Amino acid sequence: MAVKEVLGKYSKEQIKKAAQIKAIFFDVDGVLTDGKIIYDDAGRESKQFNVKDGFIISHLKKAGILVGIITGRESKVVSNRAAELKMDFCHQGIMDKHVVYEKLVAFHKLKKKEVAYIGDDINDLKVLTDCGLSACPADAMAYVKSRVDVITEAKGGRGVAREVCDLILAARGDLDKILKV
Q1: What is the predicted pLDDT for the residue at 5?
Q2: Does domain 2-179 correspond to CATH entry 1.10.150.120?
Q3: How far apart are the first and last CA of the chain?
């Protein structure tokens, strides 16, 4: 029943695209976090990540899906989170995300239609319009929303990745296996 509930809110085209995914690349600020950057008096940075987003990463990896981060900022907090989740890569300080995306596609011998990307702003647009399945959070800019395959119900940092990952796992037939306990 849960798989039907997940897939029930998506079109046949969205499900078809999701079924082909072998890699998911994430932006961080505004996607895996709510976009807030907090500095304490000592200059230490903090961010909040959603546990549900993080929890699904291990299931993606078990399903053979490559997962990683491409983000414009550099942050030790992000490095720590990527390491904790055992992501396959974490590229930070990237001004042109499309260049890194292209290199990752080639390096991992992927087809663009096999890559999902979740982003929320101008610096994500080129990747969002070039990948197989593009997604953004509910609170992304309107000009981003108009160019993606999926707009999540969740806002940034509140389960965006989980929604998209559940769609992909369900479309591929992997969510059924995960839910059998």
Answers
A1: 87
A2: no
A3: 14
Sheet holding 115-118, edge to edge: 89-91, 66-70, 23-26, 115-118, 133-136, 150-151
Token pair belonging to 179:
């839910």
pLDDT less than 70: residues of the chain:
1, 181
CA distances to 12, 29, 163, 169 from 62, rounded to whole Å, are 25, 26, 18, 11
pTM beyond cutoff 0.85: yes
Token reading at 63? 């399903």
Tokens of residue 67, six digits: 């997962």
Are the CB atoms for 155 and 137 separated by under 8 Å?
A: yes
Domain limits, the chain: 2-179
* pLDDT for res 180: 84
Length of the chain equals: 181
Both structure tokens of 56: 């699904």
Cβ proximity of 159 and 140 under 8 Å: no
In this structure, which amino acid lies at residue 91? H
Contact 80/100 with Cβ under 8 angstroms?
no
